[in-house]
Amino acid sequence: MEKKRVIKDYEKLSEEIHEQIKLKYPFGFSQNLVTFTNKDGKRVSALPFETEDTYYLIRMTVHEALAIIEDDDDYDDDGMLREESREEYQDKYSDDMDDIVDDVADDSGYDDY
């Protein structure tokens, strides 16, 4: 079965997806952004994220990525996911996250959007 592909704004994602993204990107989002050309021919930056059944490109600029982390209490002042938050989310999503966390460096396939 082929995974569906979704391009969405961070604010429009569920809290569950937010928590899973934090596990995949415990050191913040800005250094992991990719760029692609959208259907209107405009260059867009986004954070790649994959679940068992969906490839996400989460639209955000570098400035927005930094602001999200700065405003999130799960991250410390250095922009790192707090240990207690990491442990809580690992326990909560342990079955779902095995493949996702192991796949942090794999951003292949996003040029197809």
Description:
The chain starts with a strand and ends in an 11-residue tail after the last helix. Helix 1 crosses helix 3 (83-102). It is α+β, with helices and mostly antiparallel strands. Strands 1-4-3-2 form a four-stranded mixed β-sheet, with no helix packed on it. The longest helix is centred in the last third of the chain and has 20 residues, at 83-102. It has three helices and four strands; from the N terminus they run βαβββαα. The protein has helices at 15-24, 62-71, 83-102; strands spanning 4-9, 34-37, 43-50, 54-59. Strand 3 (43-50) and strand 4 (54-59) form a beta hairpin.
Brief digest:
With 113 residues, the chain is α+β, with helices and mostly antiparallel strands. The protein has helices at 15-24, 62-71, 83-102, and strands at residues 4-9, 34-37, 43-50, 54-59. 35% of the residues lie in helices and 21% in strands.
